[in-house]
Amino acid sequence: MKPVRLPASATSALPRWGLWALGLLYILPGLIGRDPWKNEDASSFGIAWTMAHGGLSDWLMPNIVGLPMPGESPLPYWIGAIFIKLFGWLLGDPLAGRLPAVGFFLVGSLSVWYATYLLGRRTEAQPLRLAFGGQPEPRDFGRTLADGAFLIYLGSLGLLLQSHEPTAKSLQVSLVAFSIYVAVRLFEARSLRSAALLGLSFGLLVLTRGWLLPLAMLCGLLTLALMREKAIARDMLLATVPVTLLVAALWFIVSWALLPGAPARFAIWETINLRQLSWPTWTALSYYFKYGIWFAWPAWPFAGWAVYAWRQQRSTLHIALPLAFFISLTIMLLLNPHPEEGILLPLLPPLVILAAFGLPTMKRGAINAVDWFSVMTLTACAAFIWLAWIAKESGWPAQIARNVYKLAPGFKPEFNLIALVIALLGSVFWILLVNWRLSRRPAVLWRAVVLSSGGVILCWLLLTTLWLPWINYSKSYAGVAAQIDEHLPVVKQCVDTNVGPAQRASFAYFGQIPFGEYGQPHCDFLLYQDNISVKSDDAIWREFKGNWKLLWTGRRPSDRDERFRLYQRVGN
């Protein structure tokens, strides 16, 4: 027996303009008015920027001004480089390079919405018919579930920061969502066209972050197809696999034909992919549960309940298909000996779709518990953000103000009236939303997640309006690059270095520092990065032969460990 019994009044959908407004309010803050930030944001920009201002070899073999990045696939950086070329002159290269993040987010969110909608309007997913009628129409039920999935997607904590950076991870999660949508179309109406489109999606995933993830998804879908309809598995072998190989092979063939060093680079790329496979370890399992609990909030409680509530109909497509994706991706994660946040991201789209089908089966008490948890936690988080901002601007409370400036020594507050007005409007909207939800207690399905997504959007909005200058000061290398540039000759000379990808990208862009060829030290200047706790210079003399004179020492004010030193070669 189906676990869902609903009146038509429970399937009132959100207006389309409201969905678009929420999506834009989610994705736009945090893109404008900042530099590339430390680690992946800066390194991703560096690869795209190098492509945009480089030659064919830079487009085919990702690098950061000469530093090879052999583990990276090129697709996300091709997109970023194209945007830099098109809009860099108008918006500046960093902002132009971040614009693809908007497209990545739209592809992911729309794919989740439409996949849930198609699954939700299927006959086996419909609620039980009521004795006197009044049950919802299939299209209305599917649209309401899709709205709920969209809200859960917006409220996913693990997606928040990643979706605002144009990295390979953000494109990967969007392509996973798109693959689920195409798979729904394939299982609904078997066709070689859908199978080929699925192959295109898998091929693009190979060009985004390697072949392991699409291989895991392909195995999961083939297993599901063999259990449901063997003809679909045949179509996938005839169309999906060849198209996947063809799309991925284009990069390999062109590179091998035009670049002499391509075979060695691809050998490293393949080795890096293979290093992500091993026997299951306790480290991977503990990481999965330790970080997955908050990373996949609020999707996992609803998804878990959906699997339990629909246990008698677990073979239905709306449960079996997202579950097949989730299981195959989880197995891949547990086989990875080096777990990190990026391998958790692909789990979100199938979890979100499963969670949407848990919404109509949740008990009122459970929904109220989630609501109160969201209200209390996110309201407290927003209140603390406001309190800390007041302390930063006014000096009261004194202890909070001291802690703020201790984390970013030298920071000077910048009052921005427009940012303050936006933050105030967002906070008022949150109060009105909480009052509407708690006072009217609407019966619509998406009521259980509207506060979770609204609270996450509010906190992000406050951080990217009130706190953006402070965060940018703490995470940007622009200040350090300017100091290095001041100590170099007016006529730029090449600089040897051991700095990491993010630092190299930031220094090359902000300081126009002409780094020498990686691995072949020959320059008269040396920029050396190490830890401030290191007292001996022996490592420098071993790695970079010659006599060196120290010109400058510095670091980012917010980083107490990282240190940079600039040297000039003296003598022979």
TrEMBL record:
Presence of the UniProt keyword NAD in the record: no
Record field: transmembrane: 12-32, 75-92, 99-120, 140-161, 168-187, 199-224, 236-259, 291-310, 317-336, 342-360, 372-391, 415-436, 448-470
InterPro entries in UniProt: LipidA_mod_glycosyltrf_83
Localization terms from the record: Cell membrane
Membrane topology qualifier: Multi-pass membrane protein
Chief place where the protein resides: membrane
Taxonomy, superkingdom: Bacteria
Keywords (A to Z) from UniProt: Cell membrane, Glycosyltransferase, Membrane, Transferase, Transmembrane, Transmembrane helix
Name of the protein this chain belongs to: Glycosyltransferase
